[in-house]
Design brief:
The protein is an alpha/beta fold and 1010 residues long. It contains 26 helices and 43 strands. Strand 25, helix 14 and strand 26 form a beta-alpha-beta unit.
Length: 1010
């Protein structure tokens, strides 16, 4: 009977069990404490059950069901019942009589009893004192409990049959140990003691073996960590301080990371290589900031045998200075770019006081990628691509949640332009820990090492470079996050052994033939799982099952399968999860697929649990007042900050001083309390408002996560030109810039509610502004009604198609052909639609109406069709003009597309618009940024052709959210203005009408001429 079977059984009897989760508890005392801290029902009463077997074998076994707090002497109890002596039944009796193991004993196990004369049932009278009392049961899981009302349990027992209610208070309290007559009672001294390690014997009577972790994780974390990595056979200590031997159990985890990450970067076009581990002093010192950042950690080779070297040679602390002289030789032309190399190697960093296995070691393994690009845009895109892969390593492979963000200027990579990072969190210590970093190096190293190329215009330019790395620190972080008092808990995806199969039920009375039969079944089970592609091992050593259980639990194997005579008879195996201790019976039929799914569940559950633990420790603060006290409670603080280095130093000094005063253990394997990163994901409630929100530490203006702190090309922050810094026109039918102020207008709010619902929370995002703006224009101009025809370009998967169809409009949705090379980056995103089916949204229109009114066509915007001229009443596109190729191509598209409108028809388009310049822009490539003069030129061209252009308003707004600038990967809410290249950009919307009496009097090419 499994946990889920019990739930189903109780539910079938209409007992409505409730279920709670809590911290792991391996005994009743810990269970009581864990439940007390959980969301257990009010006035609950915990229970315990045990099966007693009277001595002699003639008397019937007794199932005792009592309150957990009830204490009694077993022999006094059985004598009261008329028996002599008794003992707690062993697992063989439990399995044979109740069909369960020790952790499954409860009244509910009576469901497995076929002959009721084989067992007596005794119930503690205190359990039924109040019918409404929730009775708690701990079954098959160390982290989950169920509660059933006393009346419900009574109903279950009544349904079972005969049982006896017994008043245990009639026995009196168990006798206490006698006190010494010669020693006066003294005050007891509380002393923390190590956990007693388990001692097991080989089942052939061999010598005792001491195993197990001897300290608790929450009591002595540094010692716990050292014991876990050593006793689990992950590493061995070495005679050079700070260096360790990685044993197969840990190296296999690194291999799994290598295999997955290597495949991912290979698909991105990165190639593996290997460079020497030595670097000359001249090369290392070529980049001043870089060498200063690593100087304390550099190990130098000064002798060869007994002779001094003419020039000391450094052992690489990282490989920039090793690789880049070669890059300068290999890169000559734009055709040589991008150059994207990775190497798996070791590095040496020598200077630190307290080495910690995996976390702070003088030599460690890592991968380091070094890439070169022609443009900053390409380099920046790769930085975030790699950072996302690092997040996936931690969260998808290691089940460790991380925070993606940017390092402060003080903490960024020495000599680099900016550094992005994934940060882990260790709840036991309350400290963050750097997981991996992806650096944009800018052009600094290119200048120092002369890495230049000739571009297509024959001009010499410097490359843009990145470097990125992840190390064997990953293993240490995984251990600290998941491990418990028993040892490791390994995520299935990286475990060297995912399943261990152990024979059970073998005793001194077991014959050789029976033993062989059980062992054969174990190996059959192993063969089934191996065939399913799982990493599995059998343990047929001559140790007791208990020893083997402890051994593999300490090593963190995700799943244990037990095979015994009773299991074989039922064609089952017993499964025990390492992560939460839950047990269940698995059918041998389809065992491979069942086990694979169970391992996937374990992997997922581990991440969910770790993420909840981390999130429970993330506290948002606005002022310094509570900062130190919150940190002292092992929390991670999210605070508004001015981002000044001086302030950062002061925060570190003040928090460190407070920590020292409170005697924080400086040997704990953590990074210490300091600024970890500026997270990309910003608070969505009460977001930071520039000029309003103040730094929690110094009181100066807190900064938004703006471009200037990440990429600073000119030495100045990217700015919005003064010409745009004016209040926006609040009118609706105006060609304008996306802005915050419109959210306060009646026309905008009315349409917004139609699109997103009256109760939907306002999302201050330029995409929502664009869609609301377009919908309002179509409605206000009287074009959104039965019989009207609309056309959308580059449809993506936006809501307006279904919205307009729901109001009776016929819509032709178009998007670029799936096989178009220029469309490759859109495929698989919400910005691309390959069929009509992808556009249906049931909240706006019925399926039948949608199918009747909506059609789909693949269409390249650079080739406007001529077969549907003067067909549509309205058309629109959202942020598509900038992706056609150039600004000129976008202007030509707008003019060509107007031919498809009927006289009186309206076109509404939005495009990327720069607020930082009216001269410099990006006019080629993936995103062309329109300038004010480009919009004005288009408007004049349209007017010359006889079209009406609604008034142009280039005021970007002065409301609070108009001043917030979002940065890649664009996670802020609000999101009106953003950084793109070295520009602040936003959306510009233009409304164009074809007059009822329109006639073409001038060619497009005469109009579009610069």
């Amino acid at each position: 009977m499994s946990f889920s079977t019990i739930i189903e059984k109780l539910s079938s009897l209409s007992l409505s069990p409730s279920q709670i989760t809590h911290s792991a508890a391996s005994n009743n005392k810990d269970w009581s404490a864990a439940v007390a801290k959980s969301n257990a029902p009010n006035n609950y009463l915990l229970t315990k059950s045990l099966l007693l077997k009277p001595k002699g074998g003639k008397d019937t076994p007794i199932l005792v069901f009592a309150a957990e707090s009830t204490e009694f002497a077993i022999n006094a109890f059985v004598k009261k019942l008329g028996n002599k002596e008794a003992r707690v039944a062993n697992e063989d009796v439990l399995k044979n009589l109740l069909g369960v193991e020790k952790d499954g004993v409860s009244p509910f196990a009576l469901s497995n009893v076929k002959d009721k004369s084989t067992i007596s049932v005794i119930v503690d009278s205190s359990l039924f004192a109040n019918n409404d009392t929730p009775l708690g049961f701990r079954l098959y899981s160390e982290t989950t409990s169920i509660f059933v009302s006393a009346s419900g349990v009574k109903s279950f027992l009544d349904n079972y049959g005969e049982y006896t209610v017994f008043d245990f208070s009639s026995l009196g309290a168990p006798a206490a140990a006698p006190a010494s007559a010669s020693t006066p009672k003294a005050e007891k001294k509380v002393e923390k003691k190590p956990v007693e390690a388990k001692v097991e014997k080989a089942d052939d009577g061999g010598k005792e073996v001491k195993i197990g972790i001897e300290v608790k994780k929450n009591e002595d974390f540094p010692m716990w960590y050292q014991q876990v990595v050593k006793k689990s056979e992950m590493l061995e200590y070495y005679d050079v301080s700070g260096c360790y031997i990685l044993r197969p159990w840990s190296y296999r985890i690194w291999k799994e990371i290598q295999k997955w990450f290597g495949t991912q970067i290979e698909e991105l076009g990165v190639e593996d290589s290997y460079f020497p581990m030595f670097v000359s002093k001249r090369a290392l010192e070529l980049e001043k900031d870089h060498v200063e950042g690593f100087a304390p950690e550099v190990a130098w080779v000064t002798k060869a045998g007994s002779s001094d070297l003419e020039e000391p040679i450094a052992v690489r602390p990282t490989s920039e200075t090793v690789m880049y002289p070669a890059y300068a030789k290999w890169i000559r032309s734009h055709r040589d770019l991008p150059l994207r190399l990775n190497q798996w190697n070791n590095v040496v960093r020598w200077e630190f006081k307290h080495p910690q296995p995996f976390l702070r070691t003088r030599e460690f393994l890592w991968q380091e990628g070094h890439t070169a690009f022609a443009t900053l845009e390409e380099a920046s895109a790769e930085v975030l691509e790699i950072l996302e892969l690092y997040r996936r390593v931690y969260e998808e492979l290691l089940a460790v949640p991380v925070i993606k963000g940017k390092k402060s200027e003080k903490e960024k990579f020495a000599g680099g332009l900016y550094t992005t990072t994934v940060e882990g969190f260790i709840p036991t210590t309350g400290r963050g820990i750097q997981g991996a970093t992806s650096h944009c190096l800018g052009q600094n190293f290119a200048k120092m090492f002369g890495i230049t190329f000739e571009d297509e215009d024959k001009e010499t330019r410097q490359v843009w470079q990145n470097s990125w790395g992840i190390t064997t620190r990953t293993i240490g972080v995984m251990v600290m996050v998941h491990g418990d008092d028993k040892g490791l808990i390994l995520p299935p995806r990286v475990a060297a052994v995912q399943v261990v199969v152990i024979p059970v039920g073998i005793t001194n009375k077991t014959t050789d033939a029976e033993r062989k039969h059980i062992h054969d079944k174990v190996e059959e089970t192993v063969a089934i799982l191996k065939k399913a592609g799982l990493r599995v091992k059998s343990d047929l050593r001559h140790y007791t099952p208990g020893y083997k259980f402890n051994h593999w639990e300490m090593r963190g194997v995700p799943l244990r399968l037990e095979v015994g005579p009773a299991d074989i008879a039922k064609n089952q195996v017993r499964a025990v999860r390492r992560d939460n201790g839950e047990k269940q019976q698995l059918s041998v039929t389809d065992l491979g697929s069942i086990t694979e799914k169970l391992l996937q569940t374990i992997q997922s559950d581990m991440l969910v649990k770790a993420k909840k633990e981390r999130d429970d420790h993330v506290i948002r603060l606005e002022k310094w007042d509570n900062f130190v006290s919150v940190l002292d409670k092992k929390n991670l603080c999210l605070v508004p900050w001015c981002e000044r280095e001086k302030c950062e130093d002061e925060v570190k000094e003040r928090s460190a001083k407070s920590a020292a005063e409170q005697a924080v253990d400086d040997k704990a394997p953590s990074m210490g309390a300091k600024t970890l990163c500026i997270p990309f994901e910003q608070p969505k409630e009460n977001p930071l408002v520039p000029g309003v929100t103040k730094c929690f530490a110094c009181g100066q203006d807190a900064k938004s996560y703006t471009f200037d702190e990440i990429i600073d090309l000119s030495g100045e922050n990217p700015k919005i030109l003064p010409m745009f810094q004016k209040p926006s026109n609040p009118a609706s039918l105006v060609s304008k810039i996306a802005n915050h102020g419109d959210f306060y207008t009646e026309w905008f709010n009315t349409t917004y509610k139609k699109l997103y619902g009256a109760n939907e929370k306002i999302v201050y995002h330029r995409k929502r502004w664009e869609l609301t703006y377009i919908a309002n224009a179509v409605i206000e101009l009287g074009l959104c009604k039965e019989g009207k025809k609309g056309l959308v370009w580059a449809a993506g998967k936006e809501i307006l198609i279904s919205f307009f169809a729901g109001l009776g409009c016929s819509i032709l949705a178009s998007d670029m052909p799936p096989d178009n090379a220029g469309n490759a980056a859109w495929a698989g995103t919400d910005q691309f639609a390959s069929s009509k089916e992808a556009l249906f949204m049931e909240q706006y229109v019925s399926k039948d109406k949608f199918n009747k009114l909506v059609s789909y066509r693949s269409q390249d915007m650079n080739h406007v069709p001529i077969d549907t001229r003067e067909t549509y009443d309205f058309m629109w596109s959202t942020c598509s003009l900038e992706h056609i190729g150039t600004i000129l191509l976008g202007q030509r598209f707008v003019l060509d597309a107007m031919t498809l409108l009927k006289p009186g028809g309206v076109a509404i388009h939005t495009t990327e618009f720069t607020l930082s310049s009216n001269s410099k822009t990006v006019d080629v490539g993936w995103t062309a940024m329109w300038r004010k003069k480009d919009v004005e030129f288009l408007a004049e061209s349209l007017k010359r052709l006889g079209y009406e252009v609604y008034p142009l308003d280039f005021n970007a707004g002065t409301e609070p959210f108009d001043k917030v600038i979002d940065i890649p990967p664009y996670t802020l809410d609000p999101h009106f203005k953003l950084q793109l290249e070295n520009h602040v950009t936003t959306s510009f919307a233009i409304i164009i009408k074809k007059p009822l009496d329109w006639s073409l009097s001038i060619s497009r090419d005469q109009t579009i001429c610069k």
